[in-house]
Amino acid sequence: MLDNKLLRAERLITGFFVQPQRYPPGPFDRSQLAMVYSKITQKYDYPTFNQLPNGAIMLKPATQSHVQLQELLVQVNEEIEIHFDATKQKVLDIFQIITNHFQLDTFAHFGVKLIARWPVSGDNQASRFLEDKYFRISDTSFAVLGPGRDASGMRFHFNRADSKCDLHIEPQFQDLSKLHIDVDIQYPGAFKGLKEIGSKMQNAYDYLFNEVRSFLESPA
User: Fold this and answer.
1) Domain range for residue 38?
2) In total, how many domains does the chain have?
3) Which of 98, 127, 185, 216 is an S-S bond match for 171, by CB 3.0 to 4.6 Å?
4) What's the CA gap between 88 and 68, in Å, rounded?
């Protein structure tokens, strides 16, 4: 069984591409990357800074969180330590610091991924929960795939007017008592300014806690 109080969003990964200001496009300036790292770490804890051949990465190893600027990509991968809204605001602030520093205002292809865990209580572990509820496949049929199967999951793809969404629902392979849920929404096309991306991050969170939760709690 699922307890809706135990569904928890654990990680937010989001980013966009920068529209090049010159051709051929070049990487971020290395000295400027060090300066923007200094600005970000005045507010947020990323104790490790590594220059890359075509960019840089700022790391918080304790939570595997990082800020990456590489060629034309700006991406933040952040653990949701307390609540989604606080993490979303932190990510928006980091994006604002970066875009202000480099004087960027035109972007392309915004993406947001939300990773969640949901424990399955009782003896009905995550894999068995999915198989019993949705698959209706006999052990004999499963056996055609070969021996050693200890987990099974589902993937859905949605092609919408303004976005493409991939939804993965599967057991957490390191702990088969939990469901691993991955919501990945991609918004293709160019956009100007950052005013819309907060609502797009919120859309992923709302989709997880409304449609996805309702789907898993509803009768098969």
Assistant:
1) 4-217
2) 1
3) 127
4) 16
- Residues 6+ positions from 202 with CB-CB distance below 8 Å: 88
Residue type, position 189, single letter: G
**Is the pLDDT score of 2 beyond 90?**
no
Question: Cβ atoms within 10 A of the Cβ of 212, count?
Answer: 20
The number of angstroms, rounded, from the C-alpha of 182 to the middle of its chain's C-alpha atoms is: 7
Instruction: Give residues with Cβ within 8 angstroms of 88, minimum separation 6.
Output: 12, 198, 201, 202, 205
| Residues 110, 191 contacting (CB under 8 angstroms) | yes
Token digits for 122?
A: 């009782």
Surface-to-core class of residue 110, CB atoms within 10 Å of its CB (0-12 exposed, 13-18 middle, 19+ buried): buried
Mean pLDDT for the stretch of residues 53-62: 94
The whole-angstrom separation of Cα 188 and Cα 198 is: 16
Q: When comparing pLDDT for 82 and 220, which is higher?
A: 82
The residue to which tokens 């923007």 are assigned: 36
